[in-house]
# Entry
Amino acid sequence: MIPERLNNLRNCFPPQVRIQGMSMRTFATRLLVLFTMGIMPVDAMAQRGGIAGGIGVNVGPNGPTLSGFGNVDLQKTTEFWADSQIQTILPQMELRVDQIIELCGLSEEEANRIRLAVKGVVSKRTAAASRQIEEFVYSSGLAEPPSDFERGPEVMQHDQLVFFSAHPVGDGVVALGADFKLAITEHPLWINTIEKTLTASQFEKYRQFRMDHSRKLLHLAIDYWVASLESDVVLSPQQTDAVTVFIRNELDKLVTMEYPASMRQATETVEKAFAGNSDSLGNLLTEKQTALRRMRLVQPAGPKASWGTAPNR
# Structure
């Protein structure tokens, strides 16, 4: 179908690829718009399951309700997500195992035991995710559930998915933005295998290595946040140092072997603790700085329409 091919064409090119001053993404997008406006009505596209057909989302107390995605193939959608997850996680965890082998000097037998645990965790999570994807597809209105469909039992926290986006990619497939609440290294099977495989001294060496890594992530996020604050309220060098030390002392107690597990998680940790409260830094700021920060945090209530981004300066 032409709209699907145009949409795929648009996503194939990085933003820097240009033709006569216009990015290829923009060029393909304009072709898609012209096609839907001049050749086929948007409503007809939606009825035929086309990608350009008025995609919508309505978030209610029970989660999002999605519309305009056409005929969604549950099996293909689930397999698309699972394949993407496996292709990302398995290589990453293989590198983690190699890291442990080098750090702790494991034998081949010990290394194989950990590799087997990785495959076991991935298999368990993929199975748990498949059921959750099925329930999401039905509950969000992407597809009609069969008459005999029943929700499964409550999923354990370490296997729970969080859904945050959906993108039609054609042929009945929806690319679901979904990730597990907890990192794979926080899964009980992985933790138990590591603890049983490593000796006490090996585990302590590994634990300290991971703690240092988690702390580095957190401190990088803190430094970035303080630098942004410095730009907003004009901190003095002494204030910058004091705020940095204060936040580190407050948040370092949260650091574990696997938390924060990523830069995104580290950033969210800092923002959750300090970004939304103008008084969270106590007397480290002057009254003028606190007042300015409070003004920046205030947002008008009610619905908001956005169609661009603020100047990048």
About this structure: The chain has ten helices and six strands. The CA atoms of residues 96 and 185 lie 10 Å apart. Residues 200-233 form the longest helix (34 residues). The mean pLDDT is 82.
